Amino acid sequence: GMKDGDACGMLSLGKYCDNLLICQENGTKSLWQIIEKKGKLWVEESRNKLEAVEGEILYLRMKVTNAEKISWEVSQDGENYHSVGQATEAEAMPGGWVGVKAGLAAIHQGESLGGYVKVEYFVYQK
Contact, 99 vs 121, CB < 8 A? Predict the structure, then answer.
């Protein structure tokens, strides 16, 4: 249900705001990693186009290793995952450690109405 200008995906929030987003532009979907590093203000941002997204279903997985490193994996079928993007450090936010926060995001950029995305489940596991 996505339309041009839509983006949706997962994010991790700590000292880095690490986003793994599916973005639709000109009728095609691509996977992007957008990393923002915090200080007193957002001081650094990197945007990396990772790969084309085929089909209507994509499984996203965020892995937190030893509460220190965050990495991403994707799958078309929910069984065969492959790594994407770069890993980031799960550093403390200025002012103290609050742990790794995870969430979902959906945004639309543009003047037309956006589409929609359905999320079937969001699972935490060891």
Answer: no
Extract the tokens encoding 29: 């979907």
pTM for this prediction = 0.82
d(CA 124, CA 105): 17
| 47-76: pLDDT as tens digits | 899 999 988 889 999 998 877 788 999 999
Residue among 18, 67, 42 at smallest CA distance from 9: 18
Structure tokens at 1: 């249900």
Distance CA 57, CA 46 (A): 26
Cα distances from 45 to residues 37, 99, 115, in angstroms, run 6, 21, 26
Yes or no: say if 62 and 43 are a contact pair by the CB < 8 Å rule: no
Q: Answer yes or no: are the C-beta atoms of 5 and 15 closer than 8 Å.
A: no
Phi-psi region of 15 (alpha: psi -120 to 50; beta: other; left: phi over 0): alpha
In this structure, what DSSP letter does residue 95 have?
T
Q: Two tokens at 46? A: 């990197």
